[in-house]
Fold these 4 entries.
Entry 1:
Amino acid sequence: DAGVIQSPRHEVTEMGQEVTLRCKPISGHDYLFWYRQTMMRGLELLIYFNNNVPIDDSGMPEDRFSAKMPNASFSTLKIQPSEPRDSAVYFCASSGTGAFSGNTIYFGEGSWLTVV
Amino acid sequence: DAKTTQPNSMESNEEEPVHLPCNHSTISGTDYIHWYRQLPSQGPEYVIHGLTSNVNNRMASLAIAEDRKSSTLILHRATLRDAAVYYCIPRSYNTDKLIFGTGTRLQVFP
């Protein structure tokens, strides 16, 4: 199993530019999560999807952020326009369903974003 | 979501046991206690979870207090690869998401 695949792994962009982060969840998983990690705020849940439908986007910081999941094998997180304070590691994660005690969530290796 | 309290950091020597504590006094009856860890420059990974009984797997053991207000993750023989941030996360059975706290940074010395 290839695991959760994220791209790009590293991106440096200028303030004001559009940034698109991509994620391929584990095949067969029907939950997809986007997290952001910074030194100041730790790991924050931004949004998550179930069966390609956004369930909770209360963690999305502002209108500059948007996420889509057009099909079960692909999701994007877009920042437009980007700002220096968006510099962070963005993690995509996925999980299946069925375990009463809570399904294991599998994380990708992250996309390291620097906005200068 | 139940609040958790974990030490900011802990240290261990290689091949010694490590006990990582977590207080979750506001935990509800339907919350399972999940532990994840994050190795340097990687995404978090699952370690173990339990409800009331102590649990063991190939990575660790989880000891849950009888009143469920605290738990302890036990690494029986720490290795250098166990150096990571360990997160204790109460999670309701009907919750799809994980909400991370600040965790405990474990350093392992040779």
Entry 2:
Amino acid sequence: EAQVTQNPRYLITVTGKKLTVTCSQNMNHEYMSWYRQDPGLGLRQIYYSMNVEVTDKGDVPEGYKVSRKEKRNFPLILESPSPNQTSLYFCASARGAGASTDTQYFGPGTRLTVL
Amino acid sequence: AQSVSQHNHHVILSEAASLELGCNYSYGGTVNLFWYVQYPGQHLQLLLKYFSGDPLVKGIKGFEAEFIKSKFSFNLRKPSVQWSDTAEYFCAVKESGTYKYIFGTGTRLKVLA
């Protein structure tokens, strides 16, 4: 089944404790992206990747890191989480950015709470 | 900077009522426009998108949207909603040829049976 998976689905952590949220897709998509969803703010793009080893900042990259060493995986790293990073995080992937290729497929979301 | 406005945050309709959700964006160049939907307990999924050509685009489940360039709008419509349309709807904009997406704040639609 074609899908985007995220782990963990729920995470409660404390300020400053490094964490990684994994994202994996099995559709051989070139494009992957991370979003956070907050009440009243909608989805905001954190980072995106156009292909292996190619990443760029979205609108809200501060406090986050990403890497794209393999096509299928795009982990989101919080080196020193803070309470303002408490949010619902979504990973998405797409074949590309063109008219026929840019439909994004979203993962189930990761609800992160930073105490 | 680009922005997307969805003016209706919460909408409540009865079944068979007509739906129109507003979406306006601010960007002067060529854009690609999308509506995504999140049904309760499900992943976000694409409803429809506009890249070029006919400004009236049709999507899944009877939804359609009209791109009006002069108004910077991409409103979503459905002539007759069903209870199963209860969901959160997001408008999104992408500068053509790029990978940066800007989403609106979302509209929660509740359809009463």
Entry 3:
Amino acid sequence: GQQLNQSPQSMFIQEGEDVSMNCTSSSIFNTWLWYKQDPGEGPVLLIALYKAGELTSNGRLTAQFGITRKDSFLNISASIPSDVGIYFCAGLNYGGSQGNLIFGKGTKLSVKP
Amino acid sequence: DAMVIQNPRYQVTQFGKPVTLSCSQTLNHNVMYWYQQKSSQAPKLLFHYYDKDFNNEADTPDNFQSRRPNTSFCFLDIRSPGLGDAAMYLCATSSRGRTEAFFGQGTRLTVV
């Protein structure tokens, strides 16, 4: 089946540093989504990407949809303590009448004040 | 206001005793998903509905069933919960016109 390879698995950074994480796949996706999940909560959508090459920002977050449609990255600039959490990429395909959202394994971000 | 609502937030059930988790949405989305998420793992898709069409993942155990009586509601039924079914269960919705998926807060299932 389709798989997403997300890296790094975890990051320990100092407050104020920039963060970069990425997802790659052997499959093509029509949409890339980036989520943040806090402990005991559901994932919250951060950024949605729809077109190959698309670069989208949401505050301090920037994400890009790779030109090959097989990869995406998420950058967080000037990290703050509330950025702590697990970040998931997810790829979505619509084939015919079906949709299937596949998740990467997540990047656990820790921020030291 | 919450748009995807899962009830209950926490559910404790006995080994082998059927349990139902519920999800409702106010977004009028035609796709609804159920995911299982175990500790420190990514959400794993169990099945999804595209309108009334049910799509089961190949590796979803028969112990897991789902019902979608109308657009707004979707249920996850676990017929005979085992200890290994303890997890966070996440419901999500998306629309055919826009492909973002929105998640509820999840139901944490404990099997005793």
Entry 4:
Amino acid sequence: ILNVEQSPQSLHVQEGDSTNFTCSFPSSNFYALHWYRWETAKSPEALFVMTLNGDEKKKGRISATLNTKEGYSYLYIKGSQPEDSATYLCAFIGYNFNKFYFGSGTKLNVKP
Amino acid sequence: GAVVSQHPSWVICKSGTSVKIECRSLDFQATTMFWYRQFPKQSLMLMATSNEGSKATYEQGVEKDKFLINHASLTLSTLTVTSAHPEDSSFYICSARIPGRLFYEQYFGPGTRLTVT
């Protein structure tokens, strides 16, 4: 079983704060890393697909970076808003596998 | 686009009964669907991969006779928990893959909370 870890497990920030969290994954056989945003009682929503070492992707105030050599990805949220409150999941896919290995998520709570 | 629905969103059943959960891709055809289970404070764990028109592939440790998966059409996969027991209480979530996507993107349903009493 591949080990995908996310930290921190939970995070409480004030509105307007910027924040970041980490997804760690095996550095060998890397194929892609997916980030999802998951609000309670809704479907996980795809944020980014990271594929190349050094990738940086951005969607509005949310951005992500990827380091496949050391096996980590960072997700950044600039100027957090209450609507950013959700659980952020990462999922790793390696070569020769076509299934996702998920981290346990980082639960973000943004206080107004 | 790429919407997946799941029904029911929650269900309570008595020990020994069976429960069926449906997963539908609403605006695309999904040759492959996945079923995951999540226990509290743990990650989503893949239970099985469901391919339209063929038998599901189960992950190690998942009882195929207990968790029956049927993928009879390109838009519907079902998971039946047979003879449910309290230890089967969990959160079950499905996903579907759009054929041909290079990086295996999956689109998820909202999940089903199963409580077995």
